[in-house]
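Postdoc handover notes: sequence design on the structure in folder B. Input tokens:
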């Protein structure tokens, strides 16, 4: 059966060559006329690596992507001749129209070419047929590299619902690509929410009034919403916890929760002690409120009742750690609220846009938070996203986009923060069941947990120069056209190769351009530099403002007189200045330096701590 002319479109043109070898995934084609149709003066008809050919099998047209070109000695009509030969990876086929329908592209090959079958160039209409399938949620993110008149269409549903990754080294336009993809997806799918972890505060301009921006200045993320491992990470400021102190904390937090529950919603002035016998039992991870003042009071009670004075050091050290965090103004987004209320619903509403109110994306600007607790902060956000999906029965579809993902889920098991890795891994492995999806953005896929990457069924890969990164991506790509990865070191700016469920077949594309005012901040820093070179006085004023901001964030705090923590705050403020290190003042009873009269960094419990985790 001959293939209908309306499918071929270009069968009347001279073929570019004939098949001389074929296997399950590739065809070898000997070219005629140097690799372009006879008489064609158009350089657009010139064959090169990455272009697509079609091979007429008589039933269908098999599409093959050129992966290699070379000269070979061939025998033609009994004579030795040197011919140009190309190898093409077979990626799919164009089917004849049925029942009045238009041409249809199908991934995979049902009818293989045979020796002597003719190969032709594809035209724009056939590229449209191959790449631009009729998805219910088709979004245009750019154009094909080989033909900029053909849109690069991806399936938004396939991209989000099966997880995706956008990879690329620094400076290739990765942030721009992420912004293009998310902006287009939000235009097409109105009911989805996006929670973006933005470690460099660079996406504010890209989404404008369509996004809710979360930073320490405008959010309240109560400390009691952190689970035990996360709050330990906060109290110990990113360092491993001291075992004895962690055990004490595990005993006292449930007591503080029980005490809050016993006294909640009682009349003002009513004693809390009468209600302490409540039968509700809480664990350290139950997400219910408790007061730091109750926790410190429980510590004071233990300290006052200790008969073995050798344990005083442990309790006082833990108390000093808690106070150091609570009264640090950088942690005001956790501890700064004067009263402790059950605000879990409002916090979830802000973070996950319930209701959306024309702001479907929440961007958490991580750079404004204390660097030593970034891991625990990301852990809280990802864990809350997953739990919200579970307890809502998947009724709140949410995409968690994690920029610099290799920082939070590193391949090295000895690096990173365990709860953060577990929270992101749960989304990758189980999130789809509950409407929670994952977007991974990274410049170093070789440093990213391969399990996470393997769960991403769609990959958009930009230029990667590192061989180890190439091997990781190659292992994650299952498409027949994996040889396209050979292009990775030579991709231009804004160029990418897309694989997986979100595209009809692997495509090399160029991302669409963003308006200048929507560029991520990382691309605007040089153009937005302050003119401080020509005016010395202006430079001094500029530096003065920087220093003032720098000092204010770690020195300015306000505590209300009615706050139950006020006695502790006053005690901390009235503490005498620390004595010189070489001449410590004696403690009140033991004759040794008092822990409470020394700066936190000099107390024995803090002095020998291991350094902060580094990525």
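Designed sequence:
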């Amino acid at each position: 059966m001959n293939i209908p002319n309306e499918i071929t479109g270009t069968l009347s043109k001279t073929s570019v060559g004939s098949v001389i070898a074929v296997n399950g995934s590739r065809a070898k084609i000997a070219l005629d006329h140097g690799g372009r149709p006879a008489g064609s003066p158009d350089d657009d008809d010139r064959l090169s690596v990455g272009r697509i050919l079609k091979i007429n099998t008589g039933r269908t047209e098999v599409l093959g992507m050129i992966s290699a070109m070379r000269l070979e000695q061939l025998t033609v009509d009994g004579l030795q001749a040197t011919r140009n030969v190309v190898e093409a990876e077979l990626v799919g086929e164009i089917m004849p129209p049925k029942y009045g329908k238009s041409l249809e592209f199908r991934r995979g090959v049902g009818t293989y070419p045979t020796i002597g079958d003719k190969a032709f160039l594809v035209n724009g209409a056939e590229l449209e047929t191959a790449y631009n399938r009729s998805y219910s949620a088709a979004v245009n993110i750019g154009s094909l590299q080989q033909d900029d008149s053909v849109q690069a269409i991806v399936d938004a549903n396939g991209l989000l619902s099966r997880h995706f990754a956008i990879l690329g080294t620094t400076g290739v336009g990765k942030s721009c690509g992420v912004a293009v993809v998310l902006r287009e997806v939000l235009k097409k799918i109105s009911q989805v929410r996006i929670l973006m972890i933005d470690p460099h505060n660079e996406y504010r301009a890209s989404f404008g009034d369509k996004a809710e921006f979360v930073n320490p200045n405008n959010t309240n993320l109560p400390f009691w919403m952190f689970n035990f491992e996360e709050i330990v990470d906060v109290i110990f400021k990113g360092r491993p916890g001291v075992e004895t102190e962690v055990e004490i904390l595990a005993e006292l937090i449930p007591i503080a929760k029980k005490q809050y529950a016993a006294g909640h919603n009682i009349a003002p002035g009513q004693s809390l002690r009468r209600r302490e016998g409540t039968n509700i039992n809480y664990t350290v991870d139950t997400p219910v409120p408790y007061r730091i003042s109750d926790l410190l009071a429980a510590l004071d009670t233990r300290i006052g009742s200790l008969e073995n004075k050798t344990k005083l050091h442990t309790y006082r050290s833990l108390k000093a750690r808690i106070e150091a965090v609570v009264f640090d103004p950088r942690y005001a987004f956790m501890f700064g609220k004067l009263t402790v209320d059950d605000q879990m619903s409002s916090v979830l509403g802000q973070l996950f846009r319930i209701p959306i109110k024309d702001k479907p994306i929440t961007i958490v600007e991580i750079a404004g938070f204390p660097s030593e607790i970034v891991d625990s902060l990301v852990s809280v956000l990802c864990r809350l996203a997953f739990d919200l999906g579970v307890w809502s029965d998947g009724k709140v579809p949410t995409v968690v986009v994690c920029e610099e993902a290799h920082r939070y889920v590193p391949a090295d098991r000895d690096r990173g923060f365990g709860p953060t890795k577990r929270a992101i891994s749960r989304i990758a492995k189980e999130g789809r069941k509950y409407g929670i999806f994952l977007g991974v953005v990274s410049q170093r896929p070789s440093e990213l947990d391969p399990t996470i990457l393997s769960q991403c069924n769609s990959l958009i890969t930009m230029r990667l120069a590192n061989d180890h990164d190439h091997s990781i991506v190659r292992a994650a790509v299952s498409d027949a056209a994996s040889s396209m990865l050979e292009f990775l070191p030579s991709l231009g700016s804004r160029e990418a190769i897309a694989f997986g469920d979100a595209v009809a077949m692997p495509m090399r594309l160029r991302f669409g351009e963003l308006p200048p005012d929507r560029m991520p901040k990382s691309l605007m820093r040089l153009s937005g530099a302050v003119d401080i070179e020509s005016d010395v006085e202006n430079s001094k004023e500029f530096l003065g403002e920087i220093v003032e901001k720098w000092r204010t964030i770690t020195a300015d705090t306000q505590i209300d007189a009615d706050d139950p923590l006020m006695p502790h705050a006053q005690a901390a403020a009235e503490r005498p200045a620390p004595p010189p290190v070489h001449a410590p003042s004696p403690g009140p009873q033991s004759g040794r330096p008092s822990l409470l009269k020394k700066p936190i960094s000099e107390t024995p419990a803090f002095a020998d701590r291991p350094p902060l985790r580094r990525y």
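Context for whoever picks this up: Residues 221-342 form one domain. Don't rerun without checking with the PI first.
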